[in-house]
Specification:
This protein has 194 residues and is an alpha+beta fold. It has one domain (3-182). It has helices spanning 9-22, 43-51, 156-165, 171-182, and strands spanning 3-4, 35-36, 39-40, 57-61, 68-76, 79-86, 90-100, 109-111, 119-126, 130-139, 142-151, 166-170. The strands form three sheets. It has an eight-stranded mixed β-sheet, with helices on one face. A hairpin with a 2-residue loop joins strand 2 (35-36) and strand 3 (39-40). The longest helix has 14 residues, at 9-22. The chain starts with a strand and ends in a 12-residue tail after the last helix.
Length: 194
């Protein structure tokens, strides 16, 4: 079940009402999809964009392999997170995905990134009884952290599956979708007055 927290609850309710009238419908427990009904992004991705207005990229779920499922989502001012579960290595949480303006990559090793416009860092925390590790994607205005917590002997396969299941949507592409649906009437970050 999705949870929306912090000061964004009124915005989430307003946005849900606006979207209900003339756009694709979104369920309360819906994952932040990279693509929804042929359009870039979904309501949960819009909420991520509002939570971290500096982030050039927004984490999303591309395609969940067999055995994987969306867990929950929590959005607040300055932070958004969602979880994925796996029936073989991690219930209720196998991967926690966190979007923030910055993150601390000390102790992590920089490796070639599999995502455009990002720097990637890896930190192995433990290999006892499974796999615990952290991956960071750093990009202009934001950082996405994947926290892997796998139980059992499987290590590489679930990491690869999670990596393929997750992706990014650019803020610009998401705004293009909103412009297309709302003819320019909805901006991710409306200008502030004064």
């Amino acid at each position: 079940m999705s949870r929306i927290g912090g000061r964004f609850l009124p915005f989430a309710v307003l946005l849900a009402v606006l979207l209900a009238g003339c756009a694709p419908q979104f369920g309360q427990s819906e994952s932040p999809a990279c693509e929804q009904r042929g359009l870039t992004g979904s309501l949960p991705v819009v909420l991520e964009a509002q939570a971290v207005p500096t982030a050039a990229l927004l984490p999303c779920v591309d395609l969940l392999p067999a055995g994987w499922s969306f867990g929950s989502m929590f959005v607040q001012n300055g932070r958004a997170r969602f979880s994925l579960a796996n029936d073989r290595v991690g219930m209720p949480v196998a991967v926690m995905v966190v979007l923030e303006p910055t993150c601390d990559t000390r102790g992590a090793v920089q490796v070639p990134s599999d995502e455009e416009r990002t720097r990637r860092y890896e930190r192995v925390v433990s290999l006892k009884g499974g796999y615990k590790g952290t991956r960071y994607y750093v990009f202009p205005g934001g950082c996405v952290t994947y926290r892997f917590t796998f139980q059992g002997k499987a290590r590489a396969a679930p990491v690869n599956e999670a990596t393929l299941a997750l992706g990014f949507v650019s803020r610009r592409a998401l705004q293009d979708t909103l412009d297309k649906v709302y003819q320019g009437r909805f901006k991710l970050n409306p200008p502030t007055s004064g």
